[in-house]
Amino acid sequence: MTIAAAPTTPAKFRDYLDLTKPRLSLLSVLTALVGYLATRPPSNPAKLFFVLLGTSLAAGGVAALNQWLESDTDAQMQRTADRPIPSGKIASGSAFVVGALMCIASLFLLFAKVNLPACLFTLLTIFAYLGWYTPAKRWSIWSTEIGALAGAFPPLIGWAAGEGRVTTLGWILFGILFFWQIPHFMAIAWIYRRDYSVVHFPMLPVRDEAGGKAAAWSLFNTFALVAVSLLPVYLGFASWAYGLAAAIGGAWFIWRAIVFLRADGRDVSARKLFRCSLAYLPLVLGALVADRMTNF
Protein backbone atom coordinates (compact mmCIF):
# COMPACT_ATOMS: atom_id res chain seq x y z
CA MET A 1 0.00 0.00 0.00
CA THR A 2 1.27 3.46 -0.86
CA ILE A 3 1.62 5.67 2.21
CA ALA A 4 0.59 9.25 1.56
CA ALA A 5 2.93 12.02 2.54
CA ALA A 6 2.29 13.55 5.94
CA PRO A 7 -0.15 16.47 5.70
CA THR A 8 1.58 19.85 5.69
CA THR A 9 -1.43 21.46 7.38
CA PRO A 10 -3.85 20.04 9.96
CA ALA A 11 -6.75 18.14 8.47
CA LYS A 12 -10.07 19.98 8.43
CA PHE A 13 -13.48 18.68 9.41
CA ARG A 14 -14.42 18.67 5.72
CA ASP A 15 -11.51 16.34 4.98
CA TYR A 16 -12.69 13.83 7.56
CA LEU A 17 -16.24 14.15 6.28
CA ASP A 18 -15.00 13.35 2.75
CA LEU A 19 -13.18 10.34 4.18
CA THR A 20 -16.55 8.84 5.14
CA LYS A 21 -17.95 9.20 1.57
CA PRO A 22 -21.13 10.86 2.87
CA ARG A 23 -23.25 10.38 -0.26
CA LEU A 24 -22.46 6.68 -0.56
CA SER A 25 -22.81 6.20 3.19
CA LEU A 26 -26.19 7.94 3.11
CA LEU A 27 -27.45 5.30 0.68
CA SER A 28 -26.54 2.55 3.14
CA VAL A 29 -28.23 4.38 6.00
CA LEU A 30 -31.41 5.03 3.99
CA THR A 31 -31.71 1.41 2.85
CA ALA A 32 -31.25 0.26 6.45
CA LEU A 33 -34.02 2.71 7.39
CA VAL A 34 -36.23 1.23 4.67
CA GLY A 35 -35.67 -2.24 6.09
CA TYR A 36 -36.55 -1.04 9.58
CA LEU A 37 -39.70 0.86 8.58
CA ALA A 38 -40.93 -1.92 6.30
CA THR A 39 -41.31 -4.17 9.35
CA ARG A 40 -43.91 -1.67 10.62
CA PRO A 41 -42.31 -1.53 14.08
CA PRO A 42 -44.11 0.00 17.05
CA SER A 43 -43.19 3.62 17.69
CA ASN A 44 -39.80 3.76 19.40
CA PRO A 45 -37.94 7.01 18.63
CA ALA A 46 -34.92 6.04 20.75
CA LYS A 47 -34.46 2.75 18.91
CA LEU A 48 -34.86 4.43 15.53
CA PHE A 49 -32.22 7.00 16.54
CA PHE A 50 -29.70 4.29 17.44
CA VAL A 51 -30.43 2.35 14.25
CA LEU A 52 -29.65 5.47 12.23
CA LEU A 53 -26.61 6.41 14.33
CA GLY A 54 -25.21 2.88 14.33
CA THR A 55 -25.57 2.37 10.59
CA SER A 56 -24.19 5.86 9.91
CA LEU A 57 -21.07 5.09 11.95
CA ALA A 58 -20.65 1.71 10.25
CA ALA A 59 -21.07 3.14 6.76
CA GLY A 60 -18.67 6.01 7.43
CA GLY A 61 -16.13 3.74 9.10
CA VAL A 62 -16.18 1.24 6.24
CA ALA A 63 -15.73 4.08 3.74
CA ALA A 64 -12.72 5.40 5.66
CA LEU A 65 -11.10 1.97 5.94
CA ASN A 66 -11.82 1.30 2.27
CA GLN A 67 -9.94 4.47 1.33
CA TRP A 68 -7.11 3.46 3.66
CA LEU A 69 -6.86 0.08 1.89
CA GLU A 70 -7.09 1.60 -1.59
CA SER A 71 -4.96 4.71 -1.17
CA ASP A 72 -2.40 3.39 -3.69
CA THR A 73 -4.91 2.83 -6.48
CA ASP A 74 -6.85 5.98 -5.58
CA ALA A 75 -3.65 7.98 -6.14
CA GLN A 76 -3.38 6.64 -9.71
CA MET A 77 -6.94 7.36 -10.86
CA GLN A 78 -8.04 10.83 -11.89
CA ARG A 79 -11.48 10.53 -10.30
CA THR A 80 -10.04 9.56 -6.88
CA ALA A 81 -6.64 11.27 -6.73
CA ASP A 82 -8.07 14.16 -4.71
CA ARG A 83 -9.44 11.95 -1.95
CA PRO A 84 -8.14 12.81 1.54
CA ILE A 85 -5.36 10.19 1.80
CA PRO A 86 -3.71 10.31 -1.67
CA SER A 87 -3.97 14.10 -1.72
CA GLY A 88 -2.15 14.29 1.61
CA LYS A 89 -4.99 15.99 3.47
CA ILE A 90 -5.23 13.16 6.01
CA ALA A 91 -2.44 10.81 7.10
CA SER A 92 -3.14 7.15 6.36
CA GLY A 93 -2.68 6.22 10.03
CA SER A 94 -5.26 8.78 11.09
CA ALA A 95 -7.70 7.46 8.49
CA PHE A 96 -7.28 3.93 9.82
CA VAL A 97 -7.86 4.99 13.43
CA VAL A 98 -10.96 7.03 12.54
CA GLY A 99 -12.44 4.24 10.42
CA ALA A 100 -11.74 1.52 12.96
CA LEU A 101 -13.18 3.53 15.86
CA MET A 102 -16.34 4.32 13.89
CA CYS A 103 -16.90 0.64 13.07
CA ILE A 104 -16.30 -0.43 16.68
CA ALA A 105 -18.62 2.28 17.98
CA SER A 106 -21.35 1.23 15.54
CA LEU A 107 -21.20 -2.39 16.67
CA PHE A 108 -21.27 -1.40 20.34
CA LEU A 109 -24.29 0.90 19.89
CA LEU A 110 -26.29 -1.58 17.82
CA PHE A 111 -25.58 -4.41 20.28
CA ALA A 112 -26.31 -2.34 23.38
CA LYS A 113 -29.19 -0.19 22.15
CA VAL A 114 -30.87 -2.14 19.32
CA ASN A 115 -30.39 -5.93 19.28
CA LEU A 116 -27.87 -8.68 18.57
CA PRO A 117 -29.15 -9.63 15.05
CA ALA A 118 -28.76 -6.03 13.82
CA CYS A 119 -25.25 -5.95 15.27
CA LEU A 120 -24.34 -9.26 13.60
CA PHE A 121 -25.60 -8.14 10.19
CA THR A 122 -23.58 -4.95 10.59
CA LEU A 123 -20.48 -6.99 11.41
CA LEU A 124 -21.15 -9.16 8.36
CA THR A 125 -21.46 -6.03 6.20
CA ILE A 126 -18.14 -4.67 7.47
CA PHE A 127 -16.28 -7.91 6.82
CA ALA A 128 -17.95 -8.51 3.44
CA TYR A 129 -17.03 -5.04 2.19
CA LEU A 130 -13.52 -4.73 3.60
CA GLY A 131 -12.42 -8.36 3.74
CA TRP A 132 -13.99 -9.63 0.52
CA TYR A 133 -15.07 -6.91 -1.89
CA THR A 134 -12.21 -4.44 -1.45
CA PRO A 135 -9.41 -6.96 -2.15
CA ALA A 136 -11.51 -8.68 -4.85
CA LYS A 137 -11.48 -5.49 -6.93
CA ARG A 138 -7.79 -6.16 -7.64
CA TRP A 139 -8.04 -9.78 -8.77
CA SER A 140 -11.59 -11.02 -9.38
CA ILE A 141 -13.68 -10.63 -12.52
CA TRP A 142 -16.69 -10.95 -10.20
CA SER A 143 -15.77 -8.00 -8.01
CA THR A 144 -18.89 -6.03 -8.99
CA GLU A 145 -21.14 -8.92 -8.00
CA ILE A 146 -19.22 -9.42 -4.75
CA GLY A 147 -19.62 -5.72 -4.05
CA ALA A 148 -23.34 -5.99 -4.77
CA LEU A 149 -23.64 -8.72 -2.15
CA ALA A 150 -21.83 -6.59 0.42
CA GLY A 151 -23.90 -3.55 -0.50
CA ALA A 152 -27.19 -5.43 -0.16
CA PHE A 153 -26.83 -6.12 3.58
CA PRO A 154 -27.97 -2.73 5.01
CA PRO A 155 -31.72 -3.45 4.55
CA LEU A 156 -31.17 -6.64 6.56
CA ILE A 157 -29.63 -4.58 9.36
CA GLY A 158 -32.78 -2.48 9.48
CA TRP A 159 -35.11 -5.46 9.18
CA ALA A 160 -33.30 -7.31 11.98
CA ALA A 161 -33.50 -4.17 14.09
CA GLY A 162 -37.26 -3.95 13.60
CA GLU A 163 -38.22 -7.62 13.83
CA GLY A 164 -35.33 -9.33 15.61
CA ARG A 165 -34.83 -11.65 12.64
CA VAL A 166 -35.03 -11.52 8.85
CA THR A 167 -38.12 -12.91 7.15
CA THR A 168 -39.21 -13.14 3.52
CA LEU A 169 -39.75 -9.47 2.71
CA GLY A 170 -36.41 -8.61 4.26
CA TRP A 171 -34.68 -11.01 1.86
CA ILE A 172 -36.67 -9.51 -1.02
CA LEU A 173 -35.22 -6.11 -0.09
CA PHE A 174 -31.79 -7.74 -0.10
CA GLY A 175 -32.51 -9.01 -3.63
CA ILE A 176 -33.69 -5.60 -4.82
CA LEU A 177 -30.48 -3.97 -3.58
CA PHE A 178 -28.31 -6.72 -5.06
CA PHE A 179 -29.76 -6.65 -8.57
CA TRP A 180 -30.02 -2.84 -8.59
CA GLN A 181 -26.31 -2.47 -7.97
CA ILE A 182 -25.21 -4.42 -11.08
CA PRO A 183 -26.55 -2.00 -13.75
CA HIS A 184 -25.80 0.94 -11.45
CA PHE A 185 -22.11 0.01 -11.14
CA MET A 186 -21.79 -1.26 -14.71
CA ALA A 187 -22.76 2.24 -15.83
CA ILE A 188 -20.24 3.83 -13.46
CA ALA A 189 -17.50 1.41 -14.48
CA TRP A 190 -18.13 2.08 -18.17
CA ILE A 191 -17.96 5.85 -17.65
CA TYR A 192 -14.67 5.53 -15.73
CA ARG A 193 -13.31 2.44 -17.50
CA ARG A 194 -10.05 4.17 -18.45
CA ASP A 195 -9.34 5.01 -14.82
CA TYR A 196 -10.03 1.43 -13.75
CA SER A 197 -7.84 0.17 -16.60
CA VAL A 198 -4.88 2.21 -15.30
CA VAL A 199 -4.92 0.29 -12.00
CA HIS A 200 -5.71 -3.04 -13.75
CA PHE A 201 -9.01 -3.71 -12.03
CA PRO A 202 -10.41 -6.73 -13.97
CA MET A 203 -13.96 -5.40 -14.15
CA LEU A 204 -16.22 -6.38 -17.04
CA PRO A 205 -16.28 -2.88 -18.62
CA VAL A 206 -12.45 -2.90 -18.55
CA ARG A 207 -12.13 -6.36 -20.12
CA ASP A 208 -14.99 -5.79 -22.58
CA GLU A 209 -13.66 -2.90 -24.64
CA ALA A 210 -16.68 -2.84 -26.97
CA GLY A 211 -19.10 -2.69 -24.04
CA GLY A 212 -21.65 -5.14 -25.39
CA LYS A 213 -21.18 -7.74 -22.67
CA ALA A 214 -21.33 -5.14 -19.90
CA ALA A 215 -24.54 -3.73 -21.38
CA ALA A 216 -26.12 -7.18 -21.76
CA TRP A 217 -25.25 -8.08 -18.18
CA SER A 218 -26.80 -4.80 -17.04
CA LEU A 219 -30.02 -5.59 -18.91
CA PHE A 220 -30.19 -9.14 -17.52
CA ASN A 221 -29.88 -7.90 -13.95
CA THR A 222 -32.37 -5.11 -14.58
CA PHE A 223 -34.97 -7.69 -15.63
CA ALA A 224 -34.14 -9.69 -12.49
CA LEU A 225 -34.48 -6.52 -10.41
CA VAL A 226 -37.95 -5.75 -11.77
CA ALA A 227 -39.09 -9.33 -11.19
CA VAL A 228 -37.89 -9.30 -7.58
CA SER A 229 -39.38 -5.84 -6.98
CA LEU A 230 -42.83 -7.19 -7.88
CA LEU A 231 -42.62 -10.18 -5.52
CA PRO A 232 -44.06 -8.23 -2.55
CA VAL A 233 -47.33 -7.85 -4.47
CA TYR A 234 -47.41 -11.48 -5.59
CA LEU A 235 -46.72 -12.72 -2.04
CA GLY A 236 -49.21 -10.37 -0.41
CA PHE A 237 -46.72 -8.09 1.35
CA ALA A 238 -47.74 -5.00 -0.62
CA SER A 239 -50.74 -3.69 -2.54
CA TRP A 240 -51.15 -3.05 -6.24
CA ALA A 241 -50.47 0.63 -5.60
CA TYR A 242 -46.87 -0.27 -4.81
CA GLY A 243 -46.89 -2.72 -7.70
CA LEU A 244 -47.85 0.05 -10.11
CA ALA A 245 -45.00 2.26 -8.88
CA ALA A 246 -42.54 -0.64 -9.14
CA ALA A 247 -43.76 -1.53 -12.64
CA ILE A 248 -43.49 2.06 -13.93
CA GLY A 249 -40.04 2.54 -12.39
CA GLY A 250 -38.96 -0.87 -13.67
CA ALA A 251 -40.12 -0.17 -17.21
CA TRP A 252 -38.11 3.05 -17.25
CA PHE A 253 -35.04 1.26 -15.89
CA ILE A 254 -35.35 -1.53 -18.48
CA TRP A 255 -35.64 1.03 -21.28
CA ARG A 256 -32.48 2.80 -20.17
CA ALA A 257 -30.68 -0.56 -19.97
CA ILE A 258 -31.87 -1.44 -23.49
CA VAL A 259 -30.55 1.86 -24.84
CA PHE A 260 -27.21 1.07 -23.14
CA LEU A 261 -26.98 -1.95 -25.48
CA ARG A 262 -26.52 0.31 -28.50
CA ALA A 263 -22.88 0.69 -29.47
CA ASP A 264 -23.33 4.23 -30.74
CA GLY A 265 -23.49 6.80 -27.96
CA ARG A 266 -22.78 4.28 -25.20
CA ASP A 267 -21.00 6.86 -23.06
CA VAL A 268 -24.12 9.04 -23.09
CA SER A 269 -26.49 6.14 -22.47
CA ALA A 270 -24.30 4.94 -19.56
CA ARG A 271 -24.71 8.30 -17.86
CA LYS A 272 -28.48 8.22 -18.43
CA LEU A 273 -28.65 4.66 -17.04
CA PHE A 274 -26.69 5.81 -14.00
CA ARG A 275 -29.05 8.75 -13.39
CA CYS A 276 -32.05 6.49 -13.89
CA SER A 277 -30.71 4.08 -11.27
CA LEU A 278 -30.35 6.93 -8.78
CA ALA A 279 -33.99 7.91 -9.27
CA TYR A 280 -35.36 4.36 -9.39
CA LEU A 281 -34.22 3.17 -5.98
CA PRO A 282 -35.85 5.87 -3.78
CA LEU A 283 -38.99 5.69 -5.94
CA VAL A 284 -39.48 1.95 -5.44
CA LEU A 285 -38.27 1.68 -1.85
CA GLY A 286 -40.19 4.79 -0.83
CA ALA A 287 -43.35 3.40 -2.43
CA LEU A 288 -42.90 0.10 -0.60
CA VAL A 289 -42.47 1.74 2.81
CA ALA A 290 -45.44 4.07 2.22
CA ASP A 291 -47.58 1.16 1.10
CA ARG A 292 -46.61 -0.99 4.08
CA MET A 293 -47.30 1.77 6.58
CA THR A 294 -50.67 2.77 5.15
CA ASN A 295 -52.22 -0.47 3.86
CA PHE A 296 -50.97 -3.22 6.17
Commentary on this structure:
- The protein is mostly helical.
- The chain has two domains: about 1-165, UbiA prenyltransferase (Tetracycline Repressor, domain 2, Orthogonal Bundle), CATH 1.10.357; about 165-295, Four Helix Bundle (Hemerythrin (Met), subunit A) (Up-down Bundle), CATH 1.20.120.
- Helix content is about 75%, strand content about 0%.
What is the CATH superfamily of the largest domain? UbiA prenyltransferase
- Series of secondary-structure elements, N-terminal to C-terminal: HHHHHHHHHHHHHHH
Can you count the helices? 15
Number of domains: 2
How much of the sequence lies in strands comes to under 5%
* Helix content range: over 70%
Specify the oligomeric state: single chain
Task: State the major sheet.
Answer: none
Question: What is the CATH C-level name of the largest domain?
Answer: Mainly Alpha
Give me the Rg, rounded.
19 Å
Number of strands: 0
